[in-house]
Specification:
The complex is a heterodimer. Chain A is an alpha/beta fold. Chain A is built from eight helices and 30 strands. Chain A has helices at about 20-25, 35-50, 140-145, 155-165, 180-190, 205-220, 330-340, 415-420, and strands at about 30-35, 55-60, 95-100, 105, 110-115, 120, 125-130, 130-135, 150, 170-175, 195-200, 225-230, 235-240, 245-250, 255, 260, 265-270, 280, 285, 290-295, 300-305, 310-315, 320-325, 355-360, 365-370, 380-385, 390-395, 400-405, 445, 460. In chain A, the strands form seven sheets. Chain A has a six-stranded mixed beta sheet, with helices on one face. In chain A, a hairpin with a 5-residue loop joins strand 13 and strand 14 (about 245-250). In chain A, helix 2 (about 35-50) runs parallel beside helix 7. Chain A starts with 19 loop residues before the first helix and ends in a 15-residue tail after the last strand. Chain B is of the alpha+beta class. Helix content of chain B is about 45%, strand content about 10%. In chain B, helix 10 (about 185-210) crosses helix 11. Chain B has 17 helices and twelve strands. In chain B, a hairpin with a 2-residue loop joins strand 6 (about 305-310) and strand 7 (about 310-315). Classes of the chains: A alpha/beta, B alpha+beta. The interface between A and B is medium-sized, with 18 and 20 residues.
């Protein structure tokens, strides 16, 4: 049954006026859609900042909020259990939890969220933190073969860890981004043969470019990964019992495998907002710097906020482009800002201006990045050396520092973050400790042509228009 | 003439309460007196500089080594030990620290420190049980000093009975860290170098023995194991061992003593600690902010002209980073002069930050936690005899020389 946003307008909580905000904080109704990291931290912040009204947490997964980074690391190594990664609670949130039921629609005029089971939840303020999901293998019948996995949720992590514990003869990872590389690393640590098929010229190339990608490729190979770059998987083949047995590659080769991990990036969970009039699409939900969502006309709402992987905000350090990030720290910071702003007067609101930061752990190497390396065109190895795989690489864009990445050199990154924050000139001209001869001159960072898709980077930038490219919502994943 | 701020920091008369001087210093975040170092006293500036690759820890980069009356004597003497990794820059620093850490912390030895817990507990227990007269305790002599010394000896595999020998060398070396402007730098440098050399010869003998009969101590492991970075040379091994022995010696004693002093000055917190043993974890963090054993880092050098708060610090300048002042910066911490173990978001500078952040931090934390919770639990109605207690001379490694306390009895 189509849902029409025409239900009668409920009691409104006025935005302005004497005591309205106090009233909202005392007896308002706040609904958070998305019960993961951003949703939970926002709820905690709301309570910490004195929100005493009703709080409803809606989540499509049945369990309470859990942490995802261990799923592609310790869980796959069998060192942690997927069901034991609950997020620590920083304080009590005293919420009504509606778990295991996804949100299915939004009526902005009536201020109601509709759930998949038909229930409706009214709100005075809404926070959308529905995040992303794993991009599935595009051919459905192949994706359903036994042994084909994606890795995003706790259930995925548990299922894949179980299968790895059974000792598969080979794992094929499709996509050499951060998640795919972490999976490959975990498999090798367990002694399982792994093939990685990457469409680009090297792993991590979409996020960090070809110079660093080459270092990553070396790491893969040195750890015994059968790395195939510049190839696509064209088909997965199952046996008579419906178990995956082989993959066919675009170079004509075949990989015999009994486990396939599809690691092709993520899709933003915005389909449920179709027809709502909110400025939401495949790139996420457009918001202002204070996390207030735009409607499709480009007008900012005052009662709907977005945070975490699903949000995209204009960032002053990156040309005010709309930035969407799949970063743990971004989810936490943005949740805090959104929660604060939801219950603040307009003049007290805060902008979300965190410099993006990201980390990964693979093949025994700690990788960290700050800023937006994928915006860079040049790279300078400012400290350490590529050869030793211990270094800091600084990315330049139009004569300024825009990002940095470290391999086993993370303690220096706060300095480079300050360079990014202060739009310092690139290349940095000063001497540093541990500057090597190959760090004297910048090189082409060697990012792939954006028109040739690789697995997506973990950062996307898009234009200024909040509902860019289209004004009607088309669920075009 | 009023004393310069720099001299006030060093003046022993201000040792018991240096915080008003730090407050004065923070009014000029980059404080510079003619011919002296650039003194940085505010939280955010110190934190930035600790991560700044244009700052060197290697004294050989000082432009004016020797010309600066406050600079340390840097000319190495014939036969002296090379600098420990504390005074090296990457990549040498990283390599030495990695090779040392293999036997101390994750990823190769993730449980080493925690596995010492029962042993540490026994040592604490033995020291408290050995207090004969609860009415007259010198906490430093009877507890805070012997505890970390016994621990570092066990960890390294240094015979505890040799303690009196290396105690003298350690004392001399710790004193050499104190940038005393009135002492003759050449004389002090000579004394320190002699002490380092004697300590080195003592350790060389031990290491020789460990090579023949390796045990499960760190000296044996450092001397015999090979990792991805290869093996330490004998000279590297000696300077690393000396560094660990002295650092494991001269800091935790102050952390524990400062801790008990602070608890006795805040009886409500002491009372809470008895009732909630888990409080000791945030309490020790707050202690590292409130009374850090390492008050300032006096040996950093600029490799380039750098700008801090609008002041250009020329290349080759000596920098002092006053950690203890940054820890009380009101721009970073609310009510900074209040001891508050419930403080949220406590990213203090007490253990430094960046690549030189305290190597022994996990052990120091564990020692302080065990020591303070056991003292709180077992001393009945403890009171301070002198407040403030007498302090050691050192402005860098600040702590009471004695802490006389009295209590009504000792619980089992």
């Amino acid at each position: 049954m189509p849902w029409t946003p025409s239900t009668p307008r409920p009691r409104r909580c006025p935005v302005r006026g004497d005591g309205a905000l106090e009233q909202l904080k005392r007896e308002g109704r706040i609904v958070v859609v998305g019960a993961s990291l951003a949703g939970l931290r926002a709820a905690e912040t709301l309570r910490a900042k004195g929100f005493e009204g009703s709080l409803t947490m809606i989540g499509d997964e049945p369990g309470e909020p859990y942490d995802r980074p261990p799923l592609s690391k310790q869980v796959l190594l069998g060192k942690a259990r997927a069901d034991r990664t609950a997020l620590p609670r920083l304080r009590s949130v005293d919420a009504t939890w509606r778990l295991g039921v996804p949100a299915a629609g939004l009526d902005m005029a009536a201020r109601r969220v509709r759930l998949a089971d038909g229930d409706e939840v009214p709100y005075d303020r809404l926070l959308i933190a529905t995040g992303v999901r794993a991009r599935p293998w595009p051919r459905e019948e192949e994706a359903e073969l036994d042994g084909v996995f994606v890795l995003r949720t706790r259930d995925h992590g548990a299922a894949l860890a179980r299968r790895l514990a059974d000792g598969p003869k080979r794992v094929l990872v499709i996509g050499g981004g951060f998640a795919g590389s972490e999976v490959a690393s975990a498999c090798r640590e367990r002694g399982i043969p792994v093939t990685v098929a990457e469409r680009g010229a090297s792993p991590l190339v979409g996020a960090l470019g070809g110079v660093i990608g080459a270092v990553s490729a070396g790491l893969h190979r040195e750890h015994g990964v059968d790395l195939r770059c510049g190839v696509m998987v064209t088909a997965l083949e199952g046996d008579a019992s419906g178990r995956v047995r082989a993959a066919h590659l675009s170079d004509g080769s075949t990989v015999e495998t009994d486990v396939v991990v599809v690691s092709l990036g993520a899709l933003r969970n915005t389909e449920w907002l179709a027809g709502s009039g909110l400025g939401a699409g495949p790139r996420g939900i457009a918001c202002d710097a204070g996390c207030r969502a735009f409607d499709i006309r480009g007008i900012v709402t005052d009662d709907i906020y977005a945070a975490g992987d699903v949000a995209r905000c204009p960032h002053p350090l990156f040309g005010y482009q709309f930035l969407s990030l799949e970063h743990w720290g971004n989810a936490v910071a943005q949740a805090g800002i959104a929660a604060h702003n939801m219950i603040s007067e307009s003049t007290d609101r805060l902008p979300h201006m965190e410099v993006p930061a990201f980390w990964s752990s693979q093949f025994g190497v700690n990788i960290k990045s700050v800023g937006v390396p994928s915006m860079g065109t040049e790279i300078l190895i400012a400290q350490g050396s590529l050869e030793s795989r211990r270094f800091v690489g600084v990315y330049g864009y139009q004569g300024r520092v825009i990002g940095a990445v470290s391999f086993d050199h993370g303690r220096w990154l706060p300095f480079y973050q300050e360079l990014i924050e202060s739009t310092a000139p690139f290349p940095p001209s000063f001497p540093t400790v541990d500057r090597h001869p190959d760090g004297q001159r910048p090189m082409d960072a060697d990012f792939p042509d954006p028109s040739v898709p690789s697995h997506g980077p973990t950062v996307t930038l898009s234009g200024y228009s909040p509902a860019d490219r289209r004004i009607t919502f088309i669920p075009a994943h | 003439m009023t004393q310069s701020l720099l001299h006030q920091i060093l003046d022993h008369a201000n040792r018991a309460d240096p915080y008003p001087i730090y407050e004065e210093l923070r009014k000029t975040p980059v404080h510079h007196e003619d011919g002296g170092p650039y003194v940085i006293s505010t939280y955010y500036e110190i934190r930035s500089l600790l991560h700044d690759p244009r700052i060197s820890s290697d004294a050989r980069n000082l432009a004016s080594a020797g010309a600066d009356p406050l600079a340390e004597e840097t000319t190495p003497q014939e036969g002296a030990l090379p600098p420990g990794f504390l005074k090296l820059d990457p990549p040498e620093h990283d390599r030495m620290r990695r090779m040392t850490n293999r036997h101390f912390g994750p990823p190769h030895s993730p449980r080493r420190v925690d596995d010492m817990r029962p042993e540490l507990h026994d040592i604490v227990d033995g020291l408290i049980a050995g207090i004969d007269d609860p009415g007259r305790i010198d906490l430093v002599e009877q507890f805070s000093y012997p505890f970390p010394v016994t621990v570092i000896c066990r960890l390294l595999g240094v015979p505890r009975e040799d303690e009196s020998r290396f105690h003298t060398w350690a004392d001399t070396l710790a004193a050499s860290l104190d940038p005393d402007p009135d002492a003759d730098p050449a004389e002090r440098g000579k004394g320190a170098n002699e002490a380092r050399m004697e300590l080195g010869m003592y350790l060389a003998g031990l290491i020789e023995e460990r090579r023949k009969n390796p045990g499960d101590d760190m000296l044996s492991q450092l001397a015999t194991s090979r990792g991805e970075d290869g093996q330490m040379t004998t000279m590297e091994l000696l300077s690393t061992a000396a560094l660990l022995l002295i650092a494991g010696h001269e800091t935790t004693v102050n952390l524990i003593t400062n801790g008990m002093l602070t608890l006795l000055r805040n009886p409500d917190v002491l009372q809470r600690l008895r009732a909630e043993p888990k409080l000791v974890v945030p309490l020790v963090e707050e202690l590292l902010r409130f009374e850090p054993p390492v008050q300032l880092l006096p040996q950093r050098t600029t490799l380039a002209d750098i700008e801090v708060r609008g002041v250009t610090i020329p290349k080759g300048s000596s920098l002092w980073l006053v950690l203890a002042s940054g820890n009380r910066d009101p721009l970073r911490f609310e009510n900074p002069d209040r001891f508050d173990p419930d403080r949220p978001d406590i990213q203090h500078l007490g253990l430094g930050s960046g690549i030189h952040s305290c190597f022994g931090a996990p052990l120091a934390r564990l020692e302080a936690q065990l020591a303070l919770s056991e003292l709180a639990r077992r001393l009945e109605n403890p009171r301070l005899v002198d407040d403030p207690p007498p302090y050691r001379q050192n402005a860098v490694l600040r702590g009471p020389r004695h802490l006389h306390i009295t209590c009504d009895g000792i619980r089992p």
